């Protein structure tokens, strides 16, 4: 199922013999910004030209399985690309994988992913589209559920679909091959996932499907099945996976290194400021709506001596304003600056904890500011604990989700993001 990669930086090889209008060139450039791969680029260019000539919008699909109740900004990397293409006048389809969630996506897994129940899927799906609409234009977004066509397929239809792909080609998939070689179990139902995701493209007659780099096999399956069903194969566009707050693993709620798009403005702002200076530039490229020229100019200023925190504040305010408002972003900046006062060093550990609401003693312990719960209790009783500059005297205080500057004694500080 391999296809040659077309370098996103070059468009000459993609150009067809037909003249290319400025509008199509712009659409291609917008498609390529920040993407990992656009396959086949020549076919996408032809689709853009055909759409311009006919006036018929292209059908652009993004599918997300509601495996958790909330969307984080890592998801918005592909949503931003969808919005850019939506702004060009194309029809975007936000597909909620309520059926495929019951199978469980094996992408990037070294073990079998437990399938979700219908009740879990329904509860999670209720928030997905509402949150995605903070990025997409809901008035111009088609929302679909893949149970619409997957459930009516039935057993006979599933057998016919499975006949269109071989086990040998399925085992070319990297995660399956590794698990098989290491004798890690692979359940037969996991083979159904890429088939069903590919069948979604058949049902929707997609022209382009978006996804993260870990979805490439599934996206290419859509091309294969569309050809099997006599359709013009979709193109695929993969976006890089966004590293989370730790700068190591991809953003994930399970790893607690994420920023939820419905988090409070103050928390969102503080979390963006907690990322490393190096990671900041990748976030700019994938999350900011600034032009590439603007970002490059800002990076040159930082390399020339400007404080990188200035750039990070710009990014934090842009992201916070997108999901709240410009006024909320300004207020979050003021709140952050106020919390930073009171003799707090500029360089203090950044800690992320889960479990809100959390007892203050457990927060101090989790942040590494005390060695035990007993020490936390003693320091509180002695008036040696401050949260955001306020002395804490209540040992039973529970802290809600948010960002806090915790201080123990005169020299121990930590900026704690609690979720």
From TrEMBL:
Protein name, per record: Tyrosine--tRNA ligase
Principal place of residence: cytoplasm
Species the sequence originates in: Roseateles aquae
Similarity remark: Belongs to the class-I aminoacyl-tRNA synthetase family. TyrS type 2 subfamily.
Locus of motif 'HIGH' region: 66-75
Residues binding ATP: 253
UniProt short sequence motif 'KMSKS' region, positions renumbered to this chain: 250-254
Name of the top EC class for this enzyme: ligase
Catalytic activity field: tRNA(Tyr) + L-tyrosine + ATP = L-tyrosyl-tRNA(Tyr) + AMP + diphosphate + H(+)
Gene: tyrS
PANTHER family linked to this entry: TYROSINE--TRNA LIGASE, TYROSYL-TRNA SYNTHETASE
Functional note: Catalyzes the attachment of tyrosine to tRNA(Tyr) in a two-step reaction: tyrosine is first activated by ATP to form Tyr-AMP and then transferred to the acceptor end of tRNA(Tyr).
Record keywords, A-Z: Aminoacyl-tRNA synthetase, ATP-binding, Cytoplasm, Ligase, Nucleotide-binding, Protein biosynthesis, RNA-binding
HAMAP family tied to this protein: Tyr_tRNA_synth_type2
SUPFAM superfamilies: Alpha-L RNA-binding motif (SSF55174), Nucleotidylyl transferase (SSF52374)
Keyword Magnesium: no
Superkingdom of origin organism: Bacteria
GO molecular function, one term: tyrosine-tRNA ligase activity
């Amino acid at each position: 199922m391999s296809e040659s990669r077309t370098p996103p930086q070059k468009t000459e090889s993609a150009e067809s013999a037909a003249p290319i209008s400025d509008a199509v060139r712009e659409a291609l450039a917008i498609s390529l910004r920040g993407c990992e791969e656009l396959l086949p680029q020549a076919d996408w260019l032809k689709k853009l030209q055909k759409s311009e000539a006919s006036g018929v919008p292209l059908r652009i699909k993004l599918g997300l399985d509601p495996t958790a109740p909330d969307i984080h900004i890592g998801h918005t990397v592909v949503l931003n690309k969808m919005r850019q293409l939506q702004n060009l006048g194309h029809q975007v389809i936000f597909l909620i994988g309520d059926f495929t969630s019951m199978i469980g996506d094996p992408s990037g897994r070294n073990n079998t992913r437990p399938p979700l129940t219908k009740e879990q899927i329904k509860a999670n799906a209720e928030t997905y589209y509402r949150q995605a609409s903070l990025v997409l234009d809901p008035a111009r977004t088609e929302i679909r559920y893949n149970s619409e066509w997957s459930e009516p397929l039935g057993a006979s239809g599933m057998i016919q679909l499975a006949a269109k792909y071989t086990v040998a080609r399925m085992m070319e998939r990297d995660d399956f091959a590794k698990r098989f070689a290491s004798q890690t179990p692979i359940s037969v139902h996991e083979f159904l996932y890429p088939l069903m995701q590919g069948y979604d493209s058949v049902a929707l007659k997609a022209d382009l499907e978006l996804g993260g780099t870990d979805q490439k096999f599934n996206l290419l399956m859509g091309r294969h099945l569309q050809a099997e069903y006599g359709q013009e194969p979709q193109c695929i566009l993969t976006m890089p996976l966004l590293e989370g707050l730790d700068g190591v693993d991809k953003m994930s709620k399970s790893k607690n290194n994420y920023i939820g798009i419905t988090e409070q403005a103050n928390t969102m702002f503080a979390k963006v400021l907690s990322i490393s200076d190096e990671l900041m530039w990748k976030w700019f490229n994938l999350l900011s709506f600034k032009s590439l020229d603007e970002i490059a100019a800002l990076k040159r200023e930082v390399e020339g001596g400007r404080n990188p925190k200035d750039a990070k504040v710009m990014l934090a305010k842009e992201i916070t304003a997108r999901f709240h408002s410009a006024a909320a972003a300004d207020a979050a900046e003021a709140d952050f600056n106020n919390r930073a006062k009171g003799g707090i060093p500029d360089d203090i550990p950044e800690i992320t904890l889960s479990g809100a609401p959390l007892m203050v003693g457990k927060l101090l312990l989790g942040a590494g500011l005390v060695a035990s719960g007993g020490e936390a209790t003693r320091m509180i009783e002695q008036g040696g604990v401050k949260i955001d500059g306020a002395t804490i005297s209540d040992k039973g205080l529970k802290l809600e989700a948010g960002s806090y500057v915790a201080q123990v004694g005169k020299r121990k500080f930590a900026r704690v993001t609690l979720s």
